[in-house]
Amino acid sequence: MSAELEREWAEAAATGDEDAYAKLVEAYQLPVFNLAYRMLGNANEAEDAAQETFIRAYNRLHTYDPERKFSSWILSIASHYCVDRLRRRRGPVLSMEEIMGQRWIPDEHPKPEDQALQHEEHAFVRQTLEELPAPYRLVIVLRYWNDLGYEEIAEITNETVSAVKSRLHRAREMMSQHLRSIESGTSTKKHERRVTGNALSRCF
Amino acid sequence: MRCQDASELLSQQMDCPLDESEQHELDTHLAECESCQHEAALMRQADTIYAHAKFAQPPPDFANKVMERIRQRKLRRSLLRGGLMICGISLLIVLGLGLLTLAFSPLLRSSAQYPSLAYIINVLNGLVSIFHTFDYAIRLTFTATAKSGFPFIMIGYLFLAIFLIVVWARVLLVPKSGLSQVSENRQE
User: Fold this and answer.
1) CA geometry: angle at A85 spanning A84 and A88, to 5°?
2) Within 10 Å of residue A134's Cβ, how many Cβ atoms?
3) What residues of B are in contact with residue A124 (Cβ under 8 Å)?
4) Which residues of B touch A107 (CB under 8 A)?
5) DSSP state letters, A67-133
6) What stretch of H or E contains A151?
7) For position A190, what pLDDT does the model report?
8) Is pLDDT of B142 > 50?
9) How many other CB atoms sit within 10 Å of the CB of residue A187?
10) How far is the C-alpha of A88 from the C-alpha of A1, rounded, in Å?
11) Contact A174, A128 (CB under 8 A)
C-alpha cells in the first residue's frame, strides 16, 4: 500500500472519519491478527487482542507521526499489548477442552499432497513458539511473518539492535534444540515426536 | 573461532548476508567442526519451516467488529460527559434559584404600586417557589449532614446524585442511539 494513501487515511481518521479508519483496519488486520495469534496461541484471544489493538490505536491517532510507517506503529501497539497480556496471565490459562475446541486457523487451500506436511510444519511452529519466552517469540514473529530487519524490529519492540540480534540467535538455538530432542527421541510427547518426526524425514 | 561465535554468525546469516571475512571464518569453522555442522543443519531446517509459515487469517467480519466497538466506546464516553454536564447545569439552577428567592421578597414589596410589574414578579415568584421546595429539601439534607460532623456524607450525596443522573441519561439515551447504529450497519 502506498505510504501517501496511508498517511491520508490516518489523518482523516484522526479528525474523526470512521470510514478512513475502517480502511486502515482492513489493510492491517492480517499482520496484526497474525501477530496476536502467534503471540497468544489461541484464535479467540487473538481476535480480542487484535480488536483492542485497533481501538487503542484509534484513541491514540493524534500521537501518530505521519513520517513513520503506519505498519510499524500499529505493530508496536500490538506487540506491547500482547506482551502485557502474556505477563498478566497467571499459570496455565488453557484447559484441555479449550485446546481441543480451539478454532484451527486454516491455510489457504493447500494441495492434498502438501496438506500432511503443512500440518506437521504447522505443529512444529506452534510448539516452538509456545516454548519461547514472550520477548523471543515476538522478535521471531516480526522477523518471519512481517519480514522485518533488525532496525525495524528494534524500533517496534523498544530494544537495541544488538538485543534483537541476540534474541533471534537465542530463539533459533532453542528451535534447533527442539529439533534435536525430536531427533534423539527424548521428547516426552508421543504425538509431538510422531508429527514433527515425519516433518523431519520429508524435509531432508 | 569458538562454536558460540559460529552459531551467532549462522543466525545472522539467515537475516542478512555476512560480509566476506565473516563468511570465510564461518565456512572454515564449519568445515572442521562436526557439531557445528549439525547445529547449522538444524537451524537452517527450522528457518525454512518458519519462512514458509502462513499468516493466520482473521475472521471475515473483523473490521466491522472493530468499528462497532469503537462506536460503542465513543457513545459511552459522550454519555458520561453528558451526564456530568447535566449535573453541573442542575447544580447551577438550584443555586441560582436559591439566590433569586432571597432577592425577590424585598423587590415584591417595593413594586406593589406598579400592578403589571407586580404581576410578572408574582408569576416568577410562583415558579421560584416550586423550586424553593426542592431547594429547601436539599438545604435540609445539607445542614443535617453538615451538623452530624461528617462532610463525607455530603460528598457521598453528591456522588449519588451524579450517579443517578448518569443512569437516567443512559436509560433514556442508549436504546435510541443503539437502534440507529444497527440500522446504519445494515445499510453498509
Assistant:
1) 90
2) 16
3) 46, 49
4) 54
5) TS-HHHHHHHHHHHHHHHHHHH--S----HHHHHTPPP---S---HHHHHHHHHHHHHHHHHHHHS-
6) helix A150-157
7) 47
8) yes
9) 18
10) 35
11) yes
Helix H or strand E encompassing B103: helix B62-110
Burial, A116: exposed, middle or buried (Cβ in 10 Å; 0-12, 13-18, 19+)?
A: middle
pLDDT at B149: 62
Helix residue ranges per DSSP H, chain B: 3-15, 20-32, 34-51, 62-110, 115-147, 151-187
Task: For Cα atoms B156, B162, B166, give the angle at the middle one, nearest 5 degrees.
Answer: 145
Judging contacts by C-beta atoms under 8 Å, the chain B residues touching residue A173 are 7, 11, 43
Q: How many CB atoms lie within 10 A of CB A39?
A: 23
Residue A114, all three cell numbers: 502438501
- Rounded to an integer, what distance in angstroms lies between the CA atom of residue A46 and that of residue A26? 16
pLDDT value of residue B183: 37
CB contact under 8 A, A169 and B70: no
For residue B141, give the C-alpha cell. Answer: 439534607
Task: Please tell me whether residue B52 adopts helix, strand or coil conformation.
Answer: coil
Give Cβ neighbours of residue B56 (< 8 Å, ≥ 6 apart): A33, A34, A37, A38, A43, A46, A105
Residue that has been written with the C-alpha cell 508429527 in this structure: A195
Whether the Cβ atoms of residue A123 and residue A192 lie closer than 8 Å to each other = yes
Rounded to the nearest angstrom, the minimum Cα separation between A191 and chain B is 19
Q: Do residues A57 and B73 make contact, with C-beta atoms less than 8 angstroms apart?
A: no
CA distance B183 to B178: 9
Domains in chain A with CATH codes: 1-89 (1.10.1740.10), 112-204 (1.10.10.10)
Residue scoring higher pLDDT (A115 or B157): B157
Closest Cβ–Cβ partner in A34, A58, A145 for B70: A58
Q: Can you give the residue ranges of every domain in chain B?
A: 3-51, 79-187
List the pLDDT tens digit at each of the 204 positions of chain A.
577 888 888 888 888 888 999 999 999 999 999 999 999 998 999 999 999 999 999 999 989 988 888 999 999 999 999 999 998 886 555 544 444 445 555 555 555 556 666 777 888 898 899 989 999 999 999 999 999 999 999 999 999 999 999 999 999 999 999 998 888 875 445 444 444 444 444 443
Does the beta-carbon distance from A47 to B11 stay under 8 Å? no
